[in-house]
Amino acid sequence: RQGSELAGWAMGRWTYEGIDLNHNFADLNTALWDAEDNDLVPHQFPNHYIPIPEYYTFANATVAPETRAVIAWMQRYPFVLSANLHGGELVVTYPFDMTRTYWKARELTPTPDDGVFRWLAAVYATANLAMASGERRRCHYDDFARFGNIINGANWHTVAGSMNDFSYLHTNCFEITVELSCDKFPHASELPQEWENNRESLLLFMEQVGRG
Known about the structure:
This protein is α/β, with parallel strands linked by helices. It has helices spanning 29-37, 54-57, 65-76, 114-127, 129-132, 153-156, 163-171, 191-207, and strands spanning 81-86, 91-94, 150-152, 174-179. The longest helix has 17 residues, at 191-207.
């Protein structure tokens, strides 16, 4: 109701309970990297289908009911391809979302499947009308166009407990994040154009499910 021009980046980010759902999944990255540093992978610690830590399952853990429901859904259906949709930028990010060097705000942190993830991100970005436009201008400070409108999530800003990393490490699902628009809250009159911007990208992305 405030209008897109008056809504800041934090508007709508947290639930009523004050939880940021985008950072609410179990941090499996740290456990994996600690195990790798101690030469425990893969004989004593798995590098995929990583189990959820016990602390995360406690009743008093700060886990939103929405997050628990999504995790149960992911465990019930073995998804292999996924995308979550955000607003506020024009870029496609891919795992890892969390920097391996824990004190760094941004650091290139690729997965062992970096080539596949870069392909998936590029498929979406190159077919997105807004991203691929010759008149494409940066939304804020970062010029993502010079990188093909894709970036490793951790190389943009580190996120612990993201759905992308959790999907990849816990269920082997390849998930990307699509930042759909510079405007987090487009007006209703702009929604048809937003759909046109993303329709072909969504279809092409889904078609990649057949790739090995």
